[in-house]
Amino acid sequence: MHKAGFVNIIGNPNVGKSTLMNAFMGEKLSIITSKAQTTRHRILGIVNGDDFQVVLSDTPGIIKPAYELQESMMYFVKSAFEDADVLIYMIEIGEKSLKDEAFFERITKSKIPVLLLLNKIDTANQELLEEQAEFWQNKVPNAEFYPISALNGFNIKNVFERIVELLPESPPFYPKDQLTDKPERFFVNEAIREKILLYYKKEIPYAVEVDTEEFFEEENIIRIRSVIMVERETQKGIIIGHKGSALKRVGVEARKDLEKFFGKQVHLELYVKVNKNWRSNQNQLKRFGYNQ
Ligand code: GDP
Ligand code: K
Ligand code: MG
């Protein structure tokens, strides 16, 4: 018998969703920073076993509207209820208020099994832990409760085994050997996108998407080529900037991050392409991790 299914990880910014997913994956897949809102896309991580395939999505945090991307991000959070087999609702120790009541309502009414993970218990004493455990179990009685530490791995194996138990019988959704270089490419895309978010006015980041077409790891250097996709010629001009200066800045700064991340010299080639339909093209949207 083979089991396979989708697991969505949701929760407020910085509770440790990406750290948890990386713990499951055994490799660094999502960008982890102490900054909220780092994760924009739902990032798929796939954990394969002989008789199971767990497809993990790290969704953006639940946040109050702050800037324009918010709306599309909330779409991902909402969609977490529609296509998952297991929902992971993550909170961190000390968290007590519910920032988004409407969202919380949906969790308590979820027909999908919910695992309520109380994270960062490595930072708590016994008394606080017991108090929090009681508080949250009362708040979300429909969920199965696990105290965990995503960072040091406490209870992660138990949670993972429970996830596999809860998955439906199904053939795998993805080839079972798929995982090789994709996480690295995802990371490259996210690193570039982060710089675009930093250096351009806000309508620009909203209109672009990044795709890493080549990722070759050699002994002393990683050679990467990524395309920044825009919808219009004018946007292309803005991305590139005067004599290429703006694009160069993105490349230099993203390369620095990537060198730190991979611990290796990186050669990063960036180019910009106009693709009027990237937003509407279903396949491309899927390829970029959107799920509409
Ligand atoms: P996300 O925004 O929910 O994806 O949160 P991240 O995974 O990016 O983590 C936010 C911060 O919390 C990072 O600095 C992590 O190292 C830290 N963190 C995550 N899990 C734990 C944990 O179990 N214990 C402690 N002490 N810190 C954690
Ligand atoms: K974060
Ligand atoms: Mg994250």
Automatic annotation (TrEMBL):
Subcellular location(s) of the protein: Cytoplasm; Cell membrane
Superkingdom of the organism of origin: Bacteria
UniProt region (G1), positions on chain: 11-18
InterPro entries: G_ERA_dom, GTP-bd, GTPase_Era-like, KH_dom-like_a/b, KH_dom_type_2, KH_sf_prok-type, P-loop_NTPase, Small_GTP-bd
Binding site for GTP: 11-18, 58-62, 119-122
Native source organism of the sequence: Winogradskyella alexanderae
Annotated CDD domains: Era (cd04163), KH-II_Era (cd22534)
Family to which the UniProt record says this protein belongs: Belongs to the TRAFAC class TrmE-Era-EngA-EngB-Septin-like GTPase superfamily. Era GTPase family.
Pfam families: KH_2, MMR_HSR1
Protein known as: GTPase Era
Function comment: An essential GTPase that binds both GDP and GTP, with rapid nucleotide exchange. Plays a role in 16S rRNA processing and 30S ribosomal subunit biogenesis and possibly also in cell cycle regulation and energy metabolism.
